[in-house]
Amino acid sequence: MNIVFATDGIYPFVLGGMQKHAAYIIRNLAGTEHKLDVIIPDNGVKDAEEASARFWGNERPDNICFHVIPYPKLPRFPGHYVIASYLYSRRITNYFSHKISTADILFGKGYTMWHWLARQSRPQIPVIVQLHGLEMFQPAFAFREMLDKMLMRIPAVPIIRLTDYIFSYGGGVKEILLKQGRSEEAIFEQYGAVDDFWLYPEPSKKDNGFIRKFLFVARNEYRKGYHLLYETLQELVTDNETFEIDIVGELSDNLKIEDFRIRYHGNLSAESLKELKEKCEVLLLPSLSEGFPTIIIESMARGLCVAATGVGAVPKVIDEHTGWLLKTGDSQSLKDRMKAIIRTNSGVLRQKQMAAYEKNKWLLMRKYWTIFDGNLR
């Protein structure tokens, strides 16, 4: 089967959960009987040869080919991302029409299939899309965020309604698709997962000490909830609580708290983050809206349990066995939960870590070609 896989970037050329998930898909399909043409933008790479060399190293599978398309460069203005996404999707349509002669399936991440699906007439090739968390349909907690989400719905609504099939996380994310009029038969429920790179031998070998060690990894976006964590950490420091936390992601100096218990790392490579996770015990995810963050399963595979808000598909994985659920947008809930975790003994913590590790086995990535073969042929 010939599959064209259109993306708005893949890890490590572009940072982000969607981009990591795309990279996992590509590696998952390497060496199979299927041919995969991967379309990526020129963010971080100049051409297909460089992309292939950096992504695979010396062992390049014969069945996967990269194609690099220039991403539109626009000045920043309200809605510029939506316009750029449409222009990029149009370039993908043109490139596919002229450069890739055959395909059995078109598989698009994000808004990459927008132009193709909006055409009045197009070849009868099954189209499947993955819009991940569908945050644009989730509650907004600020006026600017509300406007951004309204703009993001402009491409999301027609893509959801016009695509033949759609990959979705379960829980609240799947509910959004059903409310948009998609049938159960058109939705393939699929959770992301990790490869062997992230797997820890087992949490029983993890050295939980007397001091609880937290980890927070996110971009500095309002919906990621760092403002809640910032407020909480200030109070924990004032209360002289015993804890440690490693914070990964670029932050300006005015958003940092000077205290020996708090360590800021900026952006880290996967290798550095993997090493850091070996020293941490609990992942914090106080997001206001999410789909199903890749960082959850990467951390569970490293033997961490998780304290996260019950947004998107998160409650499908995080519960009282694998961690703790937080109230959305509530710094008091985060503070109370962190204090409770600080007082959690090592034995109880290890039970949650073991449950999270075992749950990760359930999340092992379903073979995409099995889904394709079983449903799309």
Write the layout of secondary structure elements.
Blueprint: E1 2-6, H1 17-29, E2 35-41, H2 48-56, E3 64-69, H3 80-99, E4 105-109, H4 114-118, E5 127-130, H5 143-162, E6 165-168, H6 171-179, E7 187-189, E8 212-217, H7 226-238, E9 243-248, E10 262-266, H8 270-277, E11 282-285, H9 294-301, E12 305-309, E13 323-326, H10 331-342, H11 346-362, H12 368-376
Parallel strand pairs: 1-2, 1-4, 2-3, 4-5, 5-6, 6-7, 8-9, 8-11, 9-10, 11-12, 12-13
Helix pairs in contact: 7-10
Percentage of β-strand residues:
15-25%
State the CATH class of the largest domain.
Alpha Beta
Mean pLDDT: 87
At the third CATH level, what is the topology name of the largest domain? Rossmann fold
